[in-house]
Design brief:
alpha+beta, Glutaredoxin, Glutathione S-transferase Yfyf (Class Pi), Chain A, domain 2, 2 domains, 8 helices, 56% helix, 9% strand
Length: 222
């Protein structure tokens, strides 16, 4: 039996979604966040870093979202949800499957962290912390995010999906950064390609089944 170790309001939603797309049997072990919004220490019993998602398959433990997506497709996919190897679409697929965590999520997480800094320091230095936080966001993080959003939009305009004309696991991987951007950034909401992508993924029956099981994690980077 496949087990998804699922931290609430996290990127693990994508793993449940792919399992639903593949029609596999699985169970979900849910973990609640603490008052500090961190994962509980019990996750470290599953994987040393105590992060989510983690997938267990008959004693084999696989961590990292991109690695789990690849593992599931290689082991159970039977050629589904990825383009034929060696094609231009396959190259795009590989890029977006890994760009989701490698390029797209870091500035979104940085923005979340910097925005929270003024609330986490002693009150007498909050004005300084707020200035530093706003400066980092406006001068460094937001320009990076605008560049990312523009790129996503141009790629989606080519065929409606990140790897071409057909839905693939790359769209599952990119769903989280796109939804996170739409939930936080006016620039993202102004992009019709991103809005259309969001509507398209949420219309998929497997997405709705995953949402019914674990909720919609969109817009909550972790």
């Amino acid at each position: 039996m496949l087990t998804v170790h699922y931290l609430e309001k996290s990127r693990a939603h994508r793993i449940v979604w792919l399992l639903e797309e593949l029609g596999l049997d699985y169970r979900v072990e849910t973990y609640r966040r603490g008052s500090d919004y961190r994962a509980p220490d019990s996750l470290k019993k599953v994987h040393p870093l105590g992060k989510s998602p983690v997938l267990e398959d008959n004693g084999l433990v696989v961590a990292e979202s991109g690695a789990i997506l690849e593992y599931l497709l290689e082991t159970y996919g039977e050629g589904r949800f990825k383009p034929t190897g060696g094609t231009p679409e396959w190259v795009r697929y590989l890029y977006w499957l890994h760009a989701a965590e490698g390029s797209a999520m870091p500035p979104l997480v940085m923005r979340l962290v910097f925005a929270s800094i003024p609330k986490r320091v002693p009150f007498f230095i909050r004005p300084v912390a707020k200035m530093i936080s706003k400066g980092a966001i406006s001068s460094f993080i937001d320009p990076q995010l605008r560049m990312q959003i523009d790129y996503w939009s141009r790629e989606l305009a080519r065929g409606g999906w990140f790897a071409g004309d057909h839905f693939t696991a790359a769209d599952i991987a990119m769903s989280y950064p796109v939804e996170a951007a739409l939930s936080r950034l006016p620039e993202a909401k102004a992009k019709p390609q991103l809005l259309a992508f969001s509507e398209a993924i949420k219309a998929r029956p497997a997405y709705r089944r995953a949402e019914a099981k674990v909720g919609d994690a969109a817009g909550v980077p972790s």
